[in-house]
Amino acid sequence: MGCDASAVNLYAQQGVSVNARLGEIETLEYHSDRGLSVTVYRNQAKGSASTGDLRSDSISDCVSRAADIARFTQADEFSGLPDKQDLATEFPDLDLWHQQDISIDEVIERAKAVEAAGLDYDARIVNSEGGSFSASQGVSLLANSDGFSGRRWKTSYSQSCSFIGEDGQGMQRDYWYDSKHAMADMDSVKVTGETAARRTIARLGAKSIKTGTMPIIFSAEVAAGIIGHFVTAVSGGSLYRNASFLKDRINTAVFPQAISLYEQPQLVGAAASASFDSEGVATSDREIIARGVLDSYLLGSYAGRKLGMRTSGHASGVHNLKLEAAAITTDKLLVEMGDGLLVTEVMGQGVNIVTGDYSRGAAGFLIRNGEIVHAVDEVTIAASLEDIFMNLIGVGTDVDERGKIHTPSILIREMMVAGD
What we know:
Elements (H helix, E strand, L loop, with lengths): L4 E17 L2 E19 L2 E7 L4 H16 L32 H16 L5 E20 L4 E19 L2 E11 L8 H14 L9 E7 L1 H14 L2 H5 L19 E4 L22 E5 L2 E2 L6 H6 L14 E4 L2 E2 L1 H8 L2 E8 L9 E12 L2 E14 H6 L1 E5 L8 E2 L3 E9 L2
Parallel strand pairs: 7-13, 11-17, 12-16
Antiparallel strand pairs: 1-2, 1-4, 2-3, 4-5, 5-6, 7-18, 8-9, 8-11, 9-10, 13-14, 14-15, 15-18, 16-18
Helix pairs in contact: 2-3
């Protein structure tokens, strides 16, 4: 059809999920999906189309639509397939496929059991927002006209629950979850349910605190979001659109010298492992922050060309990004902070990657002399992201490895806290 290059992604996935509340099933969902997407390039004009119908005639129509779009799309000198030398040629087994036969009765029982474990934990747990369990499996094939062909397959199992606790001062809620590629590696339903209940009970009696500047510890699950803002700021789309406060900061210090961030995309069995990105570019171990210095942007091939740089294999984001520093236990981190605020939840959308401004609602615990005094809510924490990164002065040992970014608790020298 007159096109110069093409790429195709073919995928199929299926699974089941159950939500239970107060011992009764609220939703039971099966999902099964498959599809094909085609991208073509014609004189550096790009066209894309997709279909869920995999019959021959439908596929031909899909290709025709993509080609028609390319004919009427403006050429872009930076578009096209990745350079051949960047494409993956080795595809190690990353241990992401653990298919397990599980009956619908077992799925339902697990969703009910994770909720029951929390409801039975403490009489102050007075209501539930539900327990859930899901299992899914998926495979995909990416191929292009430069000879690349790569497969990906993985299974995923997850469970979660959320509770409401009440005492004489009011109600509070909290949650917990677990997610793994292998069902056998998951926490027991008792651990997940009781953790959610314990977190809920700990928040009872929460109150605001006086406005002022103070040290902040972000718990591990919240710290991943802080590092996620850094990832967004050094990603190609933000950079070539001039929409990042970290533009033109390569080879400059953006964290303290004690902090490094490195990526292990082919770590066996890890949550976000992959041997190639969404364009087929090979992934590899990479230091993003080397002793505080920004060593690498996160680029796909298009962003790389726009910036006059080479793709880093990040067309689909980061894969197992880890924060590395001299770590101490969470208890010792609290002692090192002395007086301050332990943040276990943030709310709102007050993050501006263009300017680096950070202002969000927060909840957690007031710390005095390294000890928890009482739960805190209805406060706002604020600083610039640049100051947050440069004032990261301590890390814990409690690494959360459930997502793409693996972080422990982190201690920030100071932030503004707006309360009473």
